[in-house]
Design brief:
Blueprint: E1 2-6, H1 25-33, E2 35-39, H2 41-44, E3 54-57, E4 60-63, H3 70-83, E5 89-94, E6 105-107, E7 115-117, H4 121-128, E8 132-135
Parallel strand pairs: 1-2, 1-5, 5-8
Antiparallel strand pairs: 3-4, 6-7
Length: 139
């Protein structure tokens, strides 16, 4: 089985600020037994690293400077979907709170740190295609 994993969770420095969280024990164990496909939808959508913070509010994704990056986020998610044509995937482990990858929660779009229930663009698209999406905290 192949598993899509947010690249930042694998220690790749692709987050908006050019950093990556420490690789969790759960991710390390998953990598020991499964074929991992690292993805960063923001980079696949053409955004640089580092880049301005972006948050999702409804169907719009804006940077902290008010720039509309909707097309980048949707293009990146579509690029990830192309991988499904090559690899059988039935699980995705995605970074919670991300406007691309958030599974249960995202930032509310105010850049105030407030978290609300919601999904990121990639999480929504994968779920709609029957892929089981979980956050890193659910692993």
């Amino acid at each position: 089985m192949s598993v899509i994993v947010s690249a930042c969770l694998l220690g790749l420095s692709c987050r908006y600020d050019g950093t990556a969280p420490e690789i969790s024990v759960g991710i390390r164990k998953l990598a020991e037994t499964e074929h991992i496909i690292p993805v960063c939808p923001e980079q696949l959508g053409g955004l640089p690293t580092p880049r301005p913070r972006a948050e999702r509010k409804g169907e719009k994704i804006l940077t902290e400077y008010g720039e509309d990056v909707n097309s980048n986020f949707f293009r990146g998610a579509e690029e990830v979907l192309k991988l499904l044509e090559l690899f059988p995937v039935d699980l995705a482990v995605l970074k919670e709170r991300s406007p691309s990858c958030g599974k249960n929660f995202i930032y509310d779009g105010s850049f105030s740190g407030k978290i609300v229930e919601g999904q990121g663009v990639l999480s929504e698209l994968l779920s709609a295609r029957g892929i089981n999406v979980i956050s890193e905290s659910e692993l």
